[in-house]
Design a protein that fits this description.
This protein has 161 residues and is α/β, with parallel strands linked by helices. The chain has seven helices and six strands, in the order βαβββααβαβααα. Strands 1, 2, 3, 4, 5 and 6 form a six-stranded mixed β-sheet that branches. The longest helix has 12 residues. It starts with a strand and ends with a helix.
Protein backbone atom coordinates (compact mmCIF):
# COMPACT_ATOMS: atom_id res chain seq x y z
CA UNK A 1 0.00 0.00 0.00
CA UNK A 2 1.28 3.47 -0.90
CA UNK A 3 0.49 6.25 1.53
CA UNK A 4 0.87 10.03 1.43
CA UNK A 5 0.88 12.25 4.51
CA UNK A 6 0.10 15.80 3.39
CA UNK A 7 0.76 18.43 6.03
CA UNK A 8 1.02 22.16 6.71
CA UNK A 9 2.90 23.67 9.64
CA UNK A 10 3.91 27.04 11.01
CA UNK A 11 6.47 26.10 13.66
CA UNK A 12 7.16 22.44 12.76
CA UNK A 13 4.92 20.54 15.16
CA UNK A 14 2.60 19.14 12.49
CA UNK A 15 5.64 17.91 10.56
CA UNK A 16 6.85 16.11 13.70
CA UNK A 17 3.38 14.55 14.05
CA UNK A 18 3.56 13.45 10.40
CA UNK A 19 6.90 11.76 11.10
CA UNK A 20 5.51 9.97 14.17
CA UNK A 21 2.51 8.89 12.09
CA UNK A 22 4.86 7.52 9.42
CA UNK A 23 6.67 5.45 12.05
CA UNK A 24 3.39 3.66 12.87
CA UNK A 25 2.52 2.89 9.23
CA UNK A 26 3.59 0.05 6.95
CA UNK A 27 4.55 0.03 3.27
CA UNK A 28 5.76 3.02 1.28
CA UNK A 29 4.93 6.28 3.08
CA UNK A 30 5.74 9.73 1.67
CA UNK A 31 5.50 12.92 3.74
CA UNK A 32 4.55 15.92 1.59
CA UNK A 33 4.40 19.60 2.46
CA UNK A 34 1.25 21.13 1.02
CA UNK A 35 3.14 24.43 0.69
CA UNK A 36 6.38 23.14 -0.84
CA UNK A 37 5.66 19.97 -2.82
CA UNK A 38 3.81 19.37 -6.07
CA UNK A 39 1.33 16.71 -5.07
CA UNK A 40 -0.17 14.14 -7.39
CA UNK A 41 -2.45 11.82 -5.46
CA UNK A 42 -3.11 9.30 -8.23
CA UNK A 43 -0.36 6.90 -7.09
CA UNK A 44 -1.54 6.66 -3.46
CA UNK A 45 -4.01 4.21 -1.91
CA UNK A 46 -4.24 6.06 1.39
CA UNK A 47 -3.91 9.74 2.23
CA UNK A 48 -3.59 11.55 5.57
CA UNK A 49 -4.13 15.30 5.70
CA UNK A 50 -3.04 17.34 8.69
CA UNK A 51 -2.62 21.00 9.52
CA UNK A 52 -2.31 23.17 12.58
CA UNK A 53 -4.94 25.50 13.97
CA UNK A 54 -4.45 29.24 14.51
CA UNK A 55 -7.28 31.41 15.80
CA UNK A 56 -9.73 28.63 15.02
CA UNK A 57 -8.57 28.12 11.45
CA UNK A 58 -6.48 25.51 9.66
CA UNK A 59 -3.95 26.67 7.04
CA UNK A 60 -5.65 27.98 3.90
CA UNK A 61 -3.37 25.72 1.80
CA UNK A 62 -4.96 22.68 3.49
CA UNK A 63 -8.45 24.00 2.75
CA UNK A 64 -7.52 24.67 -0.89
CA UNK A 65 -5.85 21.25 -1.22
CA UNK A 66 -8.98 19.51 0.12
CA UNK A 67 -11.23 21.44 -2.26
CA UNK A 68 -8.98 20.93 -5.30
CA UNK A 69 -8.60 17.19 -4.71
CA UNK A 70 -12.04 16.45 -3.28
CA UNK A 71 -13.12 13.94 -5.97
CA UNK A 72 -9.88 11.97 -5.79
CA UNK A 73 -9.79 12.02 -2.00
CA UNK A 74 -13.25 10.46 -1.90
CA UNK A 75 -11.76 7.43 -3.69
CA UNK A 76 -8.94 6.92 -1.14
CA UNK A 77 -8.57 5.61 2.36
CA UNK A 78 -8.50 8.85 4.28
CA UNK A 79 -7.34 10.06 7.69
CA UNK A 80 -7.63 13.68 8.84
CA UNK A 81 -5.88 15.33 11.75
CA UNK A 82 -5.38 18.69 13.36
CA UNK A 83 -2.38 19.68 15.43
CA UNK A 84 -3.74 22.02 18.11
CA UNK A 85 -4.76 22.42 21.74
CA UNK A 86 -8.46 21.75 21.11
CA UNK A 87 -9.48 18.24 22.30
CA UNK A 88 -10.89 15.87 19.69
CA UNK A 89 -14.30 15.59 21.37
CA UNK A 90 -15.01 19.33 21.02
CA UNK A 91 -18.37 19.54 19.32
CA UNK A 92 -18.39 21.02 15.82
CA UNK A 93 -14.62 21.58 15.81
CA UNK A 94 -13.60 19.50 12.76
CA UNK A 95 -16.53 20.89 10.74
CA UNK A 96 -14.75 24.26 10.86
CA UNK A 97 -11.51 22.74 9.52
CA UNK A 98 -12.35 20.19 6.80
CA UNK A 99 -15.10 19.91 4.13
CA UNK A 100 -18.17 17.94 5.25
CA UNK A 101 -17.79 15.38 2.42
CA UNK A 102 -14.26 14.51 3.56
CA UNK A 103 -15.30 14.31 7.20
CA UNK A 104 -17.97 11.76 6.42
CA UNK A 105 -15.71 9.79 4.07
CA UNK A 106 -12.67 9.70 6.38
CA UNK A 107 -11.97 6.53 8.36
CA UNK A 108 -10.58 8.52 11.29
CA UNK A 109 -10.60 12.21 12.17
CA UNK A 110 -8.73 13.48 15.19
CA UNK A 111 -6.82 16.09 17.08
CA UNK A 112 -3.29 14.93 17.89
CA UNK A 113 -2.40 17.61 20.43
CA UNK A 114 0.41 19.99 19.73
CA UNK A 115 3.12 22.16 21.17
CA UNK A 116 3.14 25.83 22.07
CA UNK A 117 6.60 26.93 21.09
CA UNK A 118 6.82 30.22 23.03
CA UNK A 119 10.43 30.77 21.95
CA UNK A 120 9.75 30.56 18.22
CA UNK A 121 6.43 32.39 18.50
CA UNK A 122 6.56 36.00 17.42
CA UNK A 123 6.39 38.76 20.03
CA UNK A 124 2.75 39.57 19.38
CA UNK A 125 1.56 35.95 19.75
CA UNK A 126 3.62 35.48 22.92
CA UNK A 127 2.13 38.61 24.47
CA UNK A 128 -1.35 37.60 23.37
CA UNK A 129 -1.09 34.21 25.13
CA UNK A 130 0.39 35.78 28.25
CA UNK A 131 -2.68 38.05 28.38
CA UNK A 132 -5.17 35.30 27.51
CA UNK A 133 -3.84 33.09 30.31
CA UNK A 134 -4.73 35.81 32.79
CA UNK A 135 -8.38 35.65 31.71
CA UNK A 136 -10.27 33.00 33.73
CA UNK A 137 -12.62 32.10 30.87
CA UNK A 138 -9.66 31.15 28.67
CA UNK A 139 -7.40 29.63 31.28
CA UNK A 140 -10.05 27.25 32.68
CA UNK A 141 -10.38 25.50 29.32
CA UNK A 142 -6.72 25.66 28.38
CA UNK A 143 -3.99 23.14 29.11
CA UNK A 144 -0.54 23.36 27.54
CA UNK A 145 -0.75 20.87 24.68
CA UNK A 146 1.57 17.93 24.08
CA UNK A 147 1.86 15.69 21.04
CA UNK A 148 -0.55 12.81 21.66
CA UNK A 149 1.30 9.75 20.35
CA UNK A 150 -1.48 7.41 21.47
CA UNK A 151 -3.94 9.27 19.25
CA UNK A 152 -1.48 9.32 16.33
CA UNK A 153 -1.13 5.54 16.68
CA UNK A 154 -4.93 5.13 16.63
CA UNK A 155 -5.06 7.24 13.47
CA UNK A 156 -2.43 5.03 11.80
CA UNK A 157 -4.10 1.80 12.89
CA UNK A 158 -7.52 2.89 11.64
CA UNK A 159 -6.12 3.20 8.14
CA UNK A 160 -3.90 0.10 8.19
CA UNK A 161 -6.90 -2.10 9.11
C1 LIG B 1 -1.05 32.39 17.96
C2 LIG B 1 -1.55 31.00 18.14
C3 LIG B 1 -2.89 30.75 17.98
C4 LIG B 1 -3.41 29.46 18.16
N1 LIG B 1 -4.75 29.25 18.02
C5 LIG B 1 -5.25 28.01 18.26
C6 LIG B 1 -6.65 27.79 18.17
O1 LIG B 1 -7.44 28.66 17.85
N2 LIG B 1 -7.10 26.55 18.47
C7 LIG B 1 -6.27 25.52 18.84
O2 LIG B 1 -6.76 24.43 19.11
N3 LIG B 1 -4.92 25.70 18.89
C8 LIG B 1 -4.40 26.90 18.62
N4 LIG B 1 -3.04 27.13 18.69
C9 LIG B 1 -2.15 26.00 19.01
C10 LIG B 1 -1.40 25.48 17.77
O3 LIG B 1 -2.31 24.91 16.88
C11 LIG B 1 -0.34 24.47 18.25
O4 LIG B 1 0.68 25.20 18.90
C12 LIG B 1 0.23 23.61 17.15
O5 LIG B 1 1.02 22.59 17.73
C13 LIG B 1 1.09 24.37 16.16
O6 LIG B 1 1.54 23.49 15.18
P1 LIG B 1 2.60 23.92 14.05
O7 LIG B 1 3.93 24.15 14.74
O8 LIG B 1 2.65 22.73 13.14
O9 LIG B 1 2.08 25.12 13.35
C14 LIG B 1 -2.52 28.39 18.50
C15 LIG B 1 -1.15 28.65 18.64
C16 LIG B 1 -0.66 29.94 18.47
C17 LIG B 1 0.83 30.19 18.62
Amino acid sequence: MKTAIVYATKYGCTKRCAEILKSYLKGEVTILSVKADKINLSQYDAVFIGGSVYMGKIQKEITQFCKRNLKQLLQKKLGLFACCYTPKDTQGFFETLFPAELLSHATYVTSVGGEMDYEQMNFLYRKMFQSLKKIDGFNEGFTEPQINKVEIKKLAEAIIK
